[in-house]
Amino acid sequence: MTYKEAREAWMWADNFVLSSDNVLYYTSVSRRNVDGNLPEMSLSLVEPTTMIQEVLHNCHDSIEGGHQGVVRSYQRVKLDYNWIRLYADVEEHLKSCLDCSSSKSLPQLKVYTPGNVLAERPFQVVWMVCDPFAEISSWKHCSVVVAVLIYWTKAMSGTDAVTVAKVFEECIYR
């Protein structure tokens, strides 16, 4: 162990207390000043890694836990327990929770994209994609013009405004 690591461990050691029955607690000081008195000191149990899943189950999956989401579950666990990667473990546990993942819907898209715009007639919705591809002589780009279910592809020498407009006009007004 290097001197820097030893010094850091020594500083961290002040935050832990071993009780008379050999239980390790992490001491934290509340940042809030309660009624003008000194800040409040609290103890939270340092949980062994073998018990983490059981604690997460009790604080989230059980009847008392209530599947409250990441922030509330984290706050509930943080009140009584402490371990390294606590927030990350709570987040991982909630992502694997079948009840939460099946009951919460995905956010609804409010922006129109080619994937969620429906057309009622041909050429009602038209979009164009210009992609670069391997240079073969003077052709450097490929444009794909999509109109409902009609796909049209053309090789272009560049993607400047005039060239793109000509390709678009050629496709639509041919």
UniProtKB/TrEMBL annotation:
Start and end residues of each Integrase zinc-binding domain: 48-105
Domain of life (superkingdom): Eukaryota
InterPro entries attached to this UniProt entry: Gypsy_RT_Integrase-like, Integrase_H2C2
Pfam families: Integrase_H2C2
Protein's recorded name: Integrase zinc-binding domain-containing protein
Native organism: Phytophthora megakarya
